[in-house]
Structures are given as C-alpha cells and as structure tokens.
Write a structure and sequence with these properties.
Number of helices of chain B: 12
Strand content of chain A: 15-25%
Structural class of chain A: alpha+beta
Radius of gyration of chain A: 26 Å
Helix content of chain B: 10-25%
Strand order of the largest sheet of chain B: 4-1-3-2-8-5-7-6
Oligomer: heterodimer
Shape of chain A: elongated
Largest interface: A-B, 60 and 43 residues
Number of domains of chain A: 2
Distance between the termini of chain B: 22 Å
Structural class of chain B: alpha+beta
CATH class of the largest domain in chain A: Mainly Alpha
Largest sheet of chain B: 8 strands, antiparallel
Radius of gyration of chain B: 22 Å
Number of helices of chain A: 10
Helix content of chain A: 40-55%
Number of domains of chain B: 2
C-alpha cells in the first residue's frame, strides 16, 4: 500500500507502487492533484507493460514499456482531479486493471490520450498501400518514358521526364523501408560508392549524367535499369506489407530527410531541383496526415497548427521552387529552414500518439 | 526574484505559439493548468536546498533572472559560454512578440531550473535530457540582445532603430567574414559547465523553431584564474580584462541612455579574434610583454609590480621607456581625462575550434564589451589601436554590434517589452 502525499513532498521521491502477477498497483491513494512521481516496482517474475489509465475512458496518462521483473521505474505526471487506475499487461498473462483511485478537487492535469490500437491502423495502412500502388503504376510509365527519351537520344526530353518521374517517387516516402533493396537501386545516393562507381544506379545516377554532359549511350543502361527496377517493384508490391507503426513514424521522418538531404542541397546531383523534391515530400506527408486524421482529431489538439505550419512551409518552398538551394538568398533559406524545423517539431508527437498499443 | 514559487516551476507549455507542437497540443489541460498547477505543486521549491544540492554535485546555484538589468553583464562570467547570432524568421510584429516572449519564458525556466513536464504517450520528451531528469541552473545566465538589421522593413521598426546601433564597421586590421558578422539577435548563454550551455541552447532552439535561425555561433570558455585570485588568461598566456571600470561608474559608462526604451540595456560589441598562437609562441616573452605592456607571468604592469589593480604612471614615462607608447594597454587606455569616457567593460572568452588548412590551431578570443555608446567607447578605443604591434599575431574575423536589452523585471515582463509591447 502506498500513499502519495500532495503538495510539496509528492515530488521526485514518490512512494513505491508494486505490481505482481495477481495485483496491479494494490491500493494507493493520492490526496491532492499536482506534480507526482510514481515509483513503479515490477514484483512479478516476468516483464511487461504498465499503463496509468483513466478507467472510465481507457485513456492513457503515462506508460512504462519493457518493464523488467525486479526493476523500479519512475513515472512523472501532473496529476489532475479525476480517476486513475493502473493497468498491467504482463507477458503470458491476461490484462489486469488495479483499483480506481479518485483524486479530489477541480484541478486540471495532464490529459489522458486514448491509445491507438493495431486494429485502428489497419485501415490507414491499407489505404496507404493502395496510394503507393497508384504511385508506382504512374512511376512505371514515367520511367519507361525516360528510358525511351534516352534510347532516342533526346536528352532534353530526358531531363524533363527524369524530373517528373523522380518527383513521383519522392511522394512515396513512407514506403521506402518496405521497398527494401529496391529503394537503393532506384534512389540511392553516391555517398559510399562515389559518382564513377558503376554500382551506383537509379534516379540520382541518371541525374548526375544528364546534368554533367554524359551521352545517351553512357546513360542508357541506367535508365533501362531504373525502368526495370520500378517494374519489378510494382510487380512485387501486392505481396509487400507496410508495418503499421510506419504510417505514424513517417509523418515526420519524410521531412526529417528533406531537411537533411534536400534543404541542404546534399541530394542535388546537378538538376538543382531539390526544392521541388521537398514539395513532393510535403505531398507525401499530407497523404499520411489525411489517412491518420480520423485517429488524430480527438488525440492531438494541435493538429490544425500542423496543417497551417505545413502550409507555411509549402508556400515558402513553392515561391522558390525553381531555384537551386545554394542560390537562395540567405533570408529566404532561413525562412524555409525555420518553417521546416517548426513543422517537424509539430509533427513529431504524431509518431508517439499513433504508435500501436495493446489494450 | 519575486516569490520562490518560480524557482522550480516547469515551463508553461502551449502558452506561446512556438510551443504549439509540443505538449501544448497534446495535453490541452496542461496549458490551462500551467499558470497555477505547477507552481503550487512543484517539488523542491526551497532555493537554499536547491543551491546546496547544486554545489554538492559541482554545479553553481541559480542566478536570479529577474532584474532591471540583465544578470550576465555585471558579474564575473561563469566558465563556459556560447555566443549565438540569430536571424528572425517570425512572421510580422505579432510573431516577433511571440518569439521574444518564448525566449523569455525559456530563459526564466532554464536559469531557475526545475523538472520539465512529462508528456505521457503524447509525444517525445520536452527536454533533451542532457542535464538528467531535472534541469539544474548551474549558474546559467542568458544575455539577449538585438542588432541593427532587426530594424529593417520587416517588422515596421525602421523608425525605432537606436541611432547608435549599426552594423559593425570594419577596422583597418580586420579580415571580416560576412557570414560571421552581425545578425538580428544575439544570444549569449554562460554557465558553470559546457553541458549546461548546450542544454540551454537546444531548449531555446526547440521552442523557437519557426521564429529564428542561427546565423553564426561560437563556443568559448573562460579559464580559471591562475594563480587563484588573479584574472583569467587568454590563449596568448596573458591575463585579459584586468582594468575594467568599477561598478560605481556604470551609469556613466555602461547603461544605455538612448533611446528611452533601452534604459537598463547596454550596447554590446562582439569581436571574434583569431590568435596566431604558433607565431606568438615563437616570440620572445620580453617582446610579448612590450606589446601588451604587462608581465606575462604575473599580469603586473611593466612599471609597477605592487598589485594587479595598480595604475600605470604614463606621465612619468613620456617616451615609453618602460611601457612602450605603442603597447596595447597604453594605446587602448591612455588614462587621460579626455579618454576616461571611452572606457568599456570587457568580458572575454577563449575559443578553440579545430585547425586551419596548414595545421595551425584555430583558436583565439571571443572579445565582448559593454558600453553606453559604441562610437564614443569601443570605436574610439579600436581606432586608437589601429596598427598596434599586436595586429601581426591576431586576426579579427567576425562579430557584431548589438543592444543587450533591458532586464526582465518580473514574471509578467518579457525581453523587449518596452520596444515591442
């Protein structure tokens, strides 16, 4: 049994609340709202997860995952007036909910967030799978067109069609991991290989050649290889699964990569189109957001701000999209980089909120 | 500092628009409860206990944040520092206000220390964790100022620019890199340890992503006085900043008189000065001492070895037999009635950032000085120093002119309120 004191002494040295195979938190009390640190002790012989929940709604205030037997973990929380109960999910055991504890008064504390389940994410995942399939279908035609340009020796058309195809690929950012080795083959950087290594293939290799005076004969193997890699990827796609956790994770990771590789100009192999790539990345991020929107609307009150920050970034990038990053005036690149940093900061919580959880 | 309850109060997430994406969005209740909840129930609100705990782990106690002047100007500086020039990207005057208020909020929290709020399952942690689960103050002082470029057309402030605040002018011995000069804002973070400084910088950046971008930055350190009780040395081996004016002259030398909203502020000059230490180390110590006008080992004047505070008697040495006429201390401060009003408050740090293309060490001085009037003071001193013998061994390459804003007086005040409010 543990009694958590209220004001003042609650603090960072809370009393220990013990969990075991037959009891999830025993009896504990909290006499007043405020800032508390709960010291949770896993007295069970197995590991698991413990959530502090609102028993009325199932919302989660805080969670301890990977909770090893015999270990103590602190959980800090601004406790508001309301009802609290621990829920234990030990390995190989049925879920268990401890006694509901009411914290008196009318103080606002940290809000509980309804956990997102694996089931919740199946729908968005399927929709994303279909979105990627549509993208790959377009991409297959576009890379065939690019290869045709090069076959005919029309490098002006090839530059145009290269951009169209590359931007299509850049809208599919949440699937790159699922693409496996195809991603390297289709969109790999020269970094480790060097630009003259024949093993370097894909969009960037073709870009490098098209914008560095290489001839059609030299480039043809790469455009041909690109088209066939995309065709093979498209063919394999129906058998590929995108992990459910990816949908939420990628909502910020796509633009993390845009900041690291596109806004720095790192991935400019000659065309100077990295800002257009960022626009494609924004489109890909918007797709994820719209798929997750039904889950986020009630869980992430700052969602409207995410959209306005994303819109701000998009309009700044659009206004400069025909300029290569190094040629941007300093104030312009600062504005774009700041807007990207802002939207990333706001996108980041989505990964935590939409992480699939057991309930 | 009014009221101890602020000392360990976690910040109020969600209060400012730059915080929108953080806890403010996730936990709507936090924002509403922040004004009272944390303050009433935060742990460890006893400042004396906090200070003792801090000292026990080798950290400095908190320096009070609130005051008529900023806390980092007058006292001897702590050992670690970061000087960061930033450009604003905030949208319009409202955005600029938000930015200054957010910086104020973060500085208030970081200098007091406390426990960052938890976010449950609602997002990544709101604190980098660099200082552990609780933020220790470690003597952190935040000095915040503005540059002339803030007064361009973007915020409708053009007419408010103080006449004495301009871009830094080049001097004859300078080799300025525009990429390391000036900026809309200057933020200096100083504390007992480098991790405290880095933590503060990351915290402020995390909370102001959309509002400003780093323009240039440099990290520095101040050396412990060796021997103890003297003055810290620069990387040329000489004590730096021995003859600062006394606090009693601050009203005449330090605090800005114009414009009226700048009362309590002070004009700040930052100069980034590379020292060619390999070349310098190949110079005879006697010649080095002639260039400075002081002894390297003791810091004493060449004409007086009684005390570091002794005043040189230039009148008794009209031809520079003892202290050469072109020595640094004699050119910088001739100690005449006419030059008394040009004295400055020096605050210098050493920097050390790698090597150059010939393998020489890239190190030198982050020279900063505070004054009432940059023309009358820093520029007059620097003009007297043109072509001093020391210029062969140093190369000023960056810096800028700024106005360190008036202090934040209390929990409802914010940086620049007199200008922007």
């Amino acid at each position: 049994m543990a009694v958590l004191a209220g004001c003042g002494s609650g603090g960072t040295t809370g009393d220990v609340i013990s969990m075991n195979s037959s009891s999830c938190g025993g009896t504990w009390q909290d006499s007043a709202p405020g800032w508390h640190t709960f010291e949770l002790y896993n007295a069970n012989t197995v590991g698991g997860e413990v959530d502090l929940t609102d028993p009325a709604t199932g919302g989660v205030y805080a969670e301890v995952t990977g909770f090893g037997p015999g270990t103590t973990r602190p959980v800090s929380l601004d406790v508001g007036s309301g009802t609290y109960a621990f829920r234990c999910l030990f390995e190989e055991q049925d879920p268990m909910t401890g006694p509901a504890v009411t914290v008196p008064g009318h103080a606002a504390g940290e809000a509980a967030i309804a956990p997102v389940t694996y089931n919740d994410l199946v729908g968005p995942d399927k929709l994303y799978q279909a979105y990627v399939e549509r993208g790959l279908t377009s991409l297959a035609g576009q890379t065939v067109a690019l290869d045709g340009d090069v076959r005919r020796g029309d490098l002006i058309a090839a530059r145009r069609d290269w951009l169209t195809a590359h931007l299509t690929y850049e809208t599919l950012g949440a699937a790159y991991d699922a693409f496996g080795d195809f991603d390297d083959e289709i969109d790999g950087r020269a970094d480790a290989l060097g630009v003259s290594n024949p093993k370097w293939t894909g969009f960037y290799r073709v870009e490098y050649g098209l914008w560095h005076g290489q001839g059609a004969r030299e480039l043809r193997p790469y455009t041909e290889g690109l088209a066939s890699a995309v065709a093979a990827l498209l063919k394999s796609w129906p058998q590929t699964e995108i992990p459910l956790i990816d949908i939420g994770l990628r909502t910020h990771e796509i633009l993390e990569n845009a900041l690291e590789f596109q806004l720095t100009g790192h991935d400019d192999y000659g065309s100077g189109t990295t800002l257009k790539t960022v626009l494609a990345n924004i489109a890909g991020t918007r797709e994820l957001l719209s798929l997750l929107r039904p889950l986020l609307a009630s869980r992430y009150p700052a969602l409207p701000s995410v959209y306005s920050s994303l819109g701000q970034l998009q309009s700044l990038v659009q206004a400069s999209q025909d300029t290569a990053v190094p040629a941007l005036p300093q104030r312009t690149s600062q504005a774009i980089d700041a807007a990207c940093g802002q939207v990333l900061q706001e996108l980041a919580p989505i990964a935590s909120i939409t992480e699939p959880r057991n309930t | 500092m009014p009221g101890n309850s602020g000392a360990a109060t976690p910040p109020a997430p969600g209060r400012r628009s730059f915080l929108r994406g953080l806890a403010g969005g996730v936990a709507g209740g936090v924002a509403a409860g922040a004004a009272t909840g944390y303050g009433l129930h935060s742990p460890g609100t006893d400042p004396a206990a906090q200070a003792n705990a801090a000292l026990a782990e080798g950290r400095l106690p908190a320096v009070p944040f609130h005051g008529a002047v900023q806390a980092g100007i007058l006292p001897d500086p702590p050992l670690a520092t970061a000087v960061v020039s930033l450009d604003t990207t905030a949208d319009g005057l409202g955005g600029l206000r938000d930015l200054f208020q957010t910086i104020t909020d973060r500085a208030r929290f970081l200098t007091a220390g406390g426990t960052p709020p938890a976010v449950g399952i609602g997002g990544p942690a709101l604190d980098s964790g660099v200082l552990g689960p609780a933020v220790v103050p470690d003597g952190l002082v935040v000095t915040f100022g503005i540059g002339a470029s803030l007064f361009d057309g973007r915020y409708g402030l053009a007419l408010a620019r103080p006449a004495g605040l301009t871009a830094m002018r080049p001097f004859p011995n300078d080799d300025l890199d525009p990429a390391q000069c000036d900026g809309d804002l200057i933020l200096q973070l100083s504390a007992g340890h480098p991790d405290t400084v880095v933590h503060a910088l990351r915290d402020i950046a995390m909370n102001t992503r959309g509002g400003m971008q780093v323009n240039w930055r440099i990290d520095g350190f101040s050396s412990p006085a060796r021997p103890a009780g003297t003055v810290p040395r620069n990387l040329m081996g000489f004590m730096d900043g021995i003859s600062n004016p006394p606090a009693t002259e601050s009203d005449d030398l330090l605090w800005a008189r114009a414009p009226s909203w700048a009362a309590g502020g002070s004009y700040l000059v930052v100069r980034l000065i590379r020292m060619l230490v390999e070349f310098w180390d190949r110079v005879d110590v006697t010649e080095q001492e002639q260039m400075f006008g002081r002894r390297r080992s003791s810091g004493y004047l060449l004409d007086n070895d009684t005390s570091l505070d002794a005043t040189p008697d230039f009148a008794a040495d009209p031809t520079g037999e003892v202290i050469p006429l072109n020595s640094h201390i004699r050119m910088a401060n001739p100690r005449t009635p006419q030059t008394a009003s040009s004295r400055i408050l020096r605050r210098a740090w050493n920097y050390d950032r790698g090597t150059d293309q010939v393998g020489d060490l890239d190190m030198g001085l982050i020279f900063t000085c505070y004054q009432q009037d940059i023309r009358r003071q820093f520029e007059a001193v620097q003009t007297r120093l043109v072509d001093e013998p020391l210029v062969d061994y140093i190369s000023p390459f960056g810096g800028g002119y700024f106005l360190a804003l008036p202090g934040v007086r209390d929990s409802s005040d914010w940086y620049g309120r007199a200008l922007l409010g």
